[in-house]
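Box 3.1 A note on notation
Throughout this textbook, protein chains are presented in two layers. The first layer is the amino acid sequence; the second is a token string describing backbone geometry. Keep the layers aligned when reading.
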Amino acid sequence: MAPEDMDKPMRFDAAFFVQERLEFDLNNNNTLDFQYQPEEGDKIEFHFEELDNEGFRTAFVFVEGRFKTEEMGEEYIDGTALTDSDTRYVLE
């Protein structure tokens, strides 16, 4: 039995978690496996088939020195495609 003052359980949203984690890592860690120095207006997209029946897509735009989610009102300004690749995870 849960204590009376305990909040009600929340549903875990994997897509939201992944989006927030990607934004944090892009802005705070060297997460890419190639040399890259972002420039104003650069856009990076991630597509995950595993997180949703229809697939989950999230995009980030480099604005004012930080990557921000495109869904937060940031727009893609201009840029050059650097690379296109598949990223996969391996279960051990």
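The chain is about 15% helix and 20% strand. The CA atoms of residues 42 and 62 lie 5 Å apart.
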